[in-house]
Amino acid sequence: MRVALHACCGPCLLEPFDALAAEHGVVVVYANPNIHPAAEYRHRRDTLLGYAVEQGIEVVEMPYDPALWIRAVTGFEDDSAARCRACFELRLGLTAIEALRCGCDALATTLTVSPYQDQDAIAEVGERVATAAGLVYLDVDFRDRYPEATRRSRELGMYRQNYCGCRPSELEAEAERESRRAERRLRRDQG
Ligand code: SF4
Prior knowledge:
This protein has 191 residues and is of the alpha/beta class. The protein has one domain: 3-Layer(aba) Sandwich (Rossmann fold), CATH 3.40.50. It has helices at 10-21, 38-55, 66-73, 80-101, 119-133, 146-155, 167-190, and strands at residues 2-6, 25-30, 59-61, 106-109, 136-137. It has a 5-stranded parallel beta sheet with strand order 3-2-1-4-5, with helices on both faces. The longest helix has 24 residues, at 167-190. The model has no long low-confidence stretch (mean pLDDT 97).
């Protein structure tokens, strides 16, 4: 089987790629118009490409068009679960287009290695998008490989981002870090 593997970033590519490539032909599709800002998009892409070139992995980059993401999530500003679902649908939809163009039979995503993503939503969206395109969705939960992906990406000195990708996720992550810093300050002052 030839699989189009949607990849969100270099660290998340490592383990899912190895697992799938052991059984299938794999073409990696970098389809991530959700990433903000453009410099961050390029940094993640170049991290992934650096590894892929070294390993001889085939990668296709879909055009970076943040307006696509904005259109996809409009109306979900107050519902982060619905926003993420629309974001998965957009990225997997773009990957399905490329999968058909390059003669793939199946679709998968590296998003399933992350313990921070809604795995049920990814599985539901992946199945729907793949079926609509006449592809098989490989619903593989790679989360047990996340510690190894973390270890390898650190060892390789890969860039590891600290937010999911979109502007709201950047703000949410910064707010969480600030709240942890405030808690630490409070504990220190009390101790
Ligand atoms: S948090 Fe991540 S998955 Fe959700 S909309 Fe933002 S970039 Fe997409």
